[in-house]
Structure formats: structure tokens, C-alpha cells
Design goal:
27% helix, 6-stranded antiparallel beta sheet, alpha+beta
Length: 190
């Protein structure tokens, strides 16, 4: 089974499990997430591999991390994720990419990400639920963080924290790759 097939199967199993655990009908989850009922059915039947944006919307609506949707098999207190098991969520033909490094469910989902954005590329994010906080640290290049329409240039070595319940984006306006590590804390579903 390929990595993509394994990811699709895990997402199908875990989306259905968490939807039922939360007591959400297909229609209720569709309304909460802003994702069509048909798309949710296709995901739960492992007939499609949704975009990162769709996966984030579903995770937010369920009040769980993307890590939890992709792999629920979390066992002991200490969970090690070898480099080969980190999940590449998005990539471009020119080399930009994001990797979900690890996540946890303590007091709401918490995720740790590694990002690389090549020159001229960027990624937009829809607003997350109220109370979501993102922390990031730029390790190479210069990242432009856009929060609620305002640009914030962050050269290597700079860290930032912001409330992510507004539209936000990450851009590389420079001429060298921008790299960052980011943590996302999402409040539990009410």
C-alpha cells in the first residue's frame, strides 16, 4: 500500500470515528466545517484524498488536530515520530512544502509543523476557530506573515505569536527559501 493509500485509509477511518464520537450527522459536520456532505461521504469511504484546506476545516469542526485525523494509533505517554513518518501535507513543483511533525490532544489539539516556502510562493489559511493560537519561528530566509490583511516581515531568527481566528497567510517575497517551525493550538470543540 502506498503512503497516499495509507493516508486516505487512515483519514477515512478516523473521520468517521470522530464524527460519530462527537455525535455529528453528515449534515451537521458539513454545516460546521463548510464542506459538502458529498465530500465527507467520499472521504469516509476512502474514495478521495481531500486538500489540506478541507482536512483542516474538518479537523477544526471536530475539535481535533490533523494528526488525529490522519493517524489515531497513539499509544504510550511518549510518542516518537521518526523523520520518515512525518506527514508531508502539501508541496509545490518548485520545492515549497509543509510537514506535520507531531500533534497531541491535551486540552485541545496541538500541532507542530515544519514549513519551507520557495521564493515567490505562499500559502493562504482560512480563519481557525476562536481561541486558536499559532506560534512560529523562522529558521532561514525571510517569511512574510500576513494576519488580517497586515504584512509582518520576519527575518531568520524571528518568532511570532498570533490569534489565528482571522484570515492569515505565509509568503516568501525574498530570493532564497524561507523555513519555519510552527505550533498551532486549537481549542477543544464545544
Amino acid at each position: 500500500m502506498s503512503d497516499l493509500d495509507q493516508l486516505t485509509q487512515s483519514l477515512a477511518r478516523n473521520l468517521k470515528r470522530w464524527r460519530k464520537e462527537r455525535g455529528f450527522t453528515l449534515d451537521a459536520l458539513a454545516a460546521r466545517a463548510g464542506v459538502s456532505r458529498g465530500m465527507i461521504i467520499q472521504i469516509e469511504q476512502a474514495r478521495t484524498n481531500p486538500s489540506v484546506g478541507t482536512t483542516v476545516k474538518l479537523a477544526d469542526a471536530l475539535g481535533v488536530s490533523i494528526t488525529t485525523l490522519l493517524d489515531y494509533e497513539q499509544g504510550p505517554q511518549v510518542r516518537l515520530v521518526p523523520p520518515g513518518q512525518a506527514v508531508r501535507m502539501w508541496s509545490s513543483s518548485t520545492g515549497s512544502h509543509t510537514t506535520l511533525l507531531v500533534g497531541a490532544e491535551a486540552r485541545g489539539p496541538l500541532e507542530l509543523w515544519s514549513w519551507t516556502l520557495m521564493p515567490g510562493e505562499g500559502s493562504d489559511s482560512d480563519p481557525h476557530p476562536e481561541g486558536t493560537v499559532e506560534l512560529l519561528h523562522v529558521t532561514a530566509g525571510t517569511l512574510t506573515l500576513v494576519v488580517d490583511g497586515e504584512d509582518h516581515p520576519l527575518p531568520a531568527g524571528t518568532s511570532a505569536a498570533f490569534e489565528a481566528h482571522v484570515a492569515h497567510a505565509y509568503r516568501n517575497d525574498g530570493d532564497e527559501p524561507a523555513e519555519m517551525t510552527m505550533a498551532v493550538s486549537i481549542p477543544p470543540a464545544r
